[in-house]
Write a structure and sequence with these properties.
It is a single chain. Helix 1 crosses helix 7, helix 2 runs antiparallel to helix 3 and helix 4 crosses helix 5. By secondary structure, the chain is mainly alpha-helical. The two termini are 13 Å apart. The chain contains nine helices and no strands. The protein has one domain. The longest helix is centred in the middle third of the chain and has 23 residues.
């Protein structure tokens, strides 16, 4: 049986994501955030991108990894009106898990290419990504948000 407080359900009966899930999606889409900041600061945008992503390949891979959370955030808004968005939202947890694993793989690749040189920034990011993957696997709340469909939740009220 699925138990959620009534304030966590929308009027259509969909469960609203928690703050931690939104932070997890923001962590996955950090390359898109960096692209937005670089676009806003026009004269220093290319320098900013080169600071965080010296290799363009890593930047493009980061953008590809960030597509999944961006798509899920879009689907979250349209899931009650659109069947495709609702189905993609239903598949959100496995999609995010694959995204997190791809992100971990990319971070390990960057670490190997730097000849194993330790740096605090990538180390903290790697630990945050491991923690977010663990949270995604263990959180009942996250499973409920992705698996609970609108009509099922309305019957639970």
């Amino acid at each position: 049986m699925i138990f959620l407080p009534p304030e966590r359900l929308t009027d259509q009966g969909w469960a609203t994501p928690s703050l931690w899930l939104y932070l997890l999606m923001a962590l996955c889409g950090r390359t898109w955030w960096l692209l937005i900041v670089a676009a806003i600061s026009r004269e220093h945008g290319s320098e900013l991108l080169a600071l965080f992503y010296p290799s363009r390949t890593d930047f493009y891979l980061g953008l590809a990894i960030g597509l999944c959370p961006a798509l899920l955030l879009w689907c979250q808004g349209f899931r009650q009106h659109n069947r495709i968005a609702a189905h993609l939202w239903y598949l959100g947890q496995p999609m995010l898990l694959l995204t997190m694993l791809a992100d971990l793989t990319l971070q390990l690749r960057v670490h190997i290419l730097s000849n194993g040189q330790f740096s605090w920034g990538p180390a903290i990011l790697f630990m945050l990504t491991i923690w977010a993957t663990w949270y995604l696997l263990q959180s009942r709340d996250t499973r409920t948000v992705f698996k609970l469909r609108g009509q099922q939740a309305a019957r639970l009220r």
